[in-house]
């Protein structure tokens, strides 16, 4: 491990809270690879007939709808969408994510952010932007690292920017990050819809869209964000690529079914790459738009993006799934009552990012966290912990995050960087005067195999 990374990982003060207060339930069956530790109340198990009626009416009026449109309605419909509910996160909700399992996860991502800020030359401005911040746990852990490493940040202007479409979740995030020090912005022409201030005086702003976040050097975090974006599904046929759509089952009018279009659609004609070898492909056009936005901002203003999600590198085919109550759930049954997801195709993200930015990964979560020094951090916490129960939870959460049979190999990390981040400074040409040796770029934490020296 480099001296810089070793110092960052081990020097910040061990926090009083080692793991989340929630106990870790038993892992689900091996087939349930999307969400770990789901739970649902009896009320959540009830069908959402109003959303089904809404979808049926739309299909009767306009014909079969794309999987992307179906997924968008199910997850984000402003009345009955799955993400409109405010209780799907945490031990009492429908799933628990890595930041909820252990604070070490968020702390190491905080170290990554500071490492990349330093690798960019320690600019005077640092905007931390999180896409889909959940309960705010990840941002909270990152900001705690910022506070503990404030001397490293020096006089840099640091601010937090949350891109969140759910009003209910934004309130939950604000409570986590600012307590009661936040308020809604009522002016219609304001891009910010909520503002707050953390206990350390750091300003926090909420936006509905990434484009609304102010320009400037930014480091973007997207944890379990892309896998919830709507996908199009395509099937190779004897007549070429055709799109898979959602239709009403004519034999059971109260149920939905998948159908394949008899002729090409605009999506099937434009989204499938010409050299595609798979017979079934899922393409997330919205993810492509977000990646291009991130790439443009990084190219123009500097910074980096770290994406952490379930995914693959262009190898899988049908990954569209629903999850409810620890089990796989039929994606077309009781729309709005279960989480819908599809693995992120990182090869597609790399392709749409283009040549304007450098792409690293994907690497497994196990590889990334070990490269970040999770073993070192765990030993620091264990040395400072004497409570047997807490020590047991520390070891258990470490196992969940890194064990290949749990989250270690299912979760992957992918990064977008400014090209200058990986380029060694050029040696000036001209007279052969004595010069100081130009430093080589810092290795990119998490994506580089670091060793103790």
UniProtKB/TrEMBL annotation:
Domain of life: Eukaryota
InterPro entries per record: NDUFAF7, NDUFAF7_sf, SAM-dependent_MTases_sf
Keyword Cell inner membrane part of the UniProt annotation: no
UniProt-recorded Gene Ontology molecular function terms: protein-arginine omega-N symmetric methyltransferase activity
Gene3D superfamilies noted in UniProt: 3.40.50.12710
Biological process annotations from GO: chordate embryonic development; methylation; mitochondrial respiratory chain complex I assembly
Keyword tags: Methyltransferase, Mitochondrion, Transferase, Transit peptide
Catalytic activity: L-arginyl-[protein] + 2 S-adenosyl-L-methionine = N(omega),N(omega)'-dimethyl-L-arginyl-[protein] + 2 S-adenosyl-L-homocysteine + 2 H(+)
Listed GO CC annotations: mitochondrion
Location(s), subcellular: Mitochondrion
Coiled coil spans: none
EC number, as in UniProt: 2.1.1.320
Assigned protein family: Belongs to the NDUFAF7 family.
Task performed by this protein: Arginine methyltransferase involved in the assembly or stability of mitochondrial NADH:ubiquinone oxidoreductase complex (complex I). Acts by mediating symmetric dimethylation of 'Arg-118' of NDUFS2 after it assembles into the complex I, stabilizing the early intermediate complex.
Protein name as it appears in the record: Protein arginine methyltransferase NDUFAF7
This protein's encoding gene: ndufaf7
């Amino acid at each position: 491990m480099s001296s810089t990374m070793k110092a960052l990982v081990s020097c910040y003060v061990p926090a009083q809270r080692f793991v989340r207060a929630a106990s870790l339930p038993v892992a689900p069956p091996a087939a349930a690879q999307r969400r770990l530790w789901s739970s649902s109340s009896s009320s959540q198990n009830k069908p959402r007939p109003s959303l089904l009626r809404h979808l049926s009416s739309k299909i009767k009026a306009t014909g079969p709808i794309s999987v992307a449109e179906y997924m968008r309605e199910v997850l984000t419909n402003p009345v009955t969408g799955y993400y409109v509910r405010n209780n799907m996160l945490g031990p009492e909700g429908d799933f628990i994510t890595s930041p909820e399992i252990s604070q070490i996860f968020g702390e190491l991502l905080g170290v990554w952010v500071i490492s990349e800020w330093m690798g960019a030359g320690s600019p005077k401005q640092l905007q931390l932007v999180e896409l889909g911040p959940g309960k705010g746990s990840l941002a909270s852990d990152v900001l705690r690292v910022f506070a503990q490493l404030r001397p490293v940040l020096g006089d840099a202007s640091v601010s937090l920017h949350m891109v969140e479409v759910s009003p209910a979740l934004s309130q939950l995030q604000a409570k986590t990050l600012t307590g009661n020090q936040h308020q809604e912005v009522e002016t219609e022409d304001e891009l910010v819809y909520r503002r707050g201030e953390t206990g350390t005086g750091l300003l926090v702003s909420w936006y509905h869209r990434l484009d609304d976040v102010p320009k400037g050097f930014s480091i973007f975090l997207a944890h379990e964000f892309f896998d919830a974006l709507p996908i199009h599904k395509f099937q190779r046929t004897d007549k070429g690529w055709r799109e898979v759509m959602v239709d009403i089952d004519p034999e059971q009018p109260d149920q939905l079914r998948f159908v394949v279009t008899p002729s090409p659609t605009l999506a099937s004609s434009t989204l499938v790459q010409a050299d595609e070898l798979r017979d079934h492909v899922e393409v997330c056009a919205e993810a492509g738009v977000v990646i291009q936005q991130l790439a443009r901002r990084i190219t123009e203003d500097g910074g980096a993006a770290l994406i952490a999600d379930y995914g693959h590198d262009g190898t899988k085919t049908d990954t569209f799934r629903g999850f409810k109550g620890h089990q796989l759930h039929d994606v077309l049954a009781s729309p709005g009552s279960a989480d819908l997801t599809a693995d992120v195709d990182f090869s597609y993200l790399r392709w749409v990012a283009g040549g304007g930015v450098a792409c690293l990964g994907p690497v497994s979560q196990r590889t990334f966290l070990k490269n970040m020094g999770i073993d070192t951090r765990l030993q620091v916490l264990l040395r400072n912990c004497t409570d047997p129960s807490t020590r047991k939870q520390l070891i258990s959460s470490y196992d969940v995050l890194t064990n290949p049979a749990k989250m270690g190999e299912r979760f992957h990390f992918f990064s977008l960087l400014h090209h200058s981040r990986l380029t060694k400074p050029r040696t000036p040409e001209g007279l052969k005067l004595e010069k100081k040796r130009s430093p080589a770029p810092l290795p990119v934490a998490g994506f580089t195999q670091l060793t103790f020296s």
